[in-house]
Amino acid sequence: MQRFTILLGGLVTPTERLKAQVAGSRVIAADGGMRHAQALGLQAELWVGDFDSAPAELQQAYAQVPRETYPVAKDFTDGELAIEAALARGAAQLVLVGAMGGQTDQTLAHLLLGIRLAQQGVPTLLTSGSEEAHPLLPGALRLDLPLHSKLSLLPLGGFSGLSLRGVRWPLQKASIPLGSTQTLSNLAVGPVEIELEAGYGVVVAYPEPATL
Q1: 168: which residues sit within 8 A by CB, 6+ positions away?
Q2: What is the pTM of this model?
Q3: 169-182: burial string, b at 16+ Cβ within 10 Å, e else
Q4: What is the distance between the alpha carbons of residues 134 and 35, in angstroms, rounded to a whole number?
Q5: If exposure means fewest CB atoms within 10 Å of the residue's CB, which of 36, 75, 124, 153 is most exposed?
Q6: Residues paired with 206 in a beta bridge
Q7: Does an H or E element contain 157, and which?
Q8: Cα 67 to Cα 134: distance, rounded to the nearest angstrom
């Protein structure tokens, strides 16, 4: 399975967990996201964007990386263009690094894009290192998180038949409407197992043990 890491321009904490998640993947950078490559020990095979957020010294440091250059005035973000480039190269799994934090509009757009990719059959992890998001669709999802990691389920399309195990506050076939905060701030007490009958949303996890 072709796994691609997309380097985006958001915040990144280069944790050991994040380094393991991107190890061995192919890499495409989106504009200023290239600044994360060195800290994560990654080499990009392609650099995509209008380069308005890539300072001259960054462009000089990675001058050897092939580029796809786009105008500043365009209908898609550099990140989405980088994702399309990965899909065109056979990506079957994506890790969007730098997708969390920063501007709210960008973060929400990345979360919705992750859901769309998952609906298209492309498993997608969105992460900053200290915070990660997993699209949640009907079916089963299993997450391995450090013990006592905090996690929240956001019912962006509402949840129907939601079962949640391996957490301090489990659920069994619950209905969670859009906008509910019922599934925020849970704690992992083992492997987290989620089953969803209908609806969609995201699981946002903080893979550092929470203070009890």
Answers
A1: 186, 187, 189
A2: 0.93
A3: eebeeebbeeeeee
A4: 24
A5: 75
A6: 150
A7: none
A8: 29
Check: CB of residue 13 under 8 Å from CB of residue 130. Answer: yes
Give the torsion sign (CA, 76, 80, 86, 92).
negative
Q: Domains of the chain by range and CATH?
A: 3-130 (3.40.50.10240), 136-209 (2.60.120.320)
Looking at 53-147, which runs of residues are DSSP E strands?
67-69, 93-97, 124-127, 132-136, 139-143
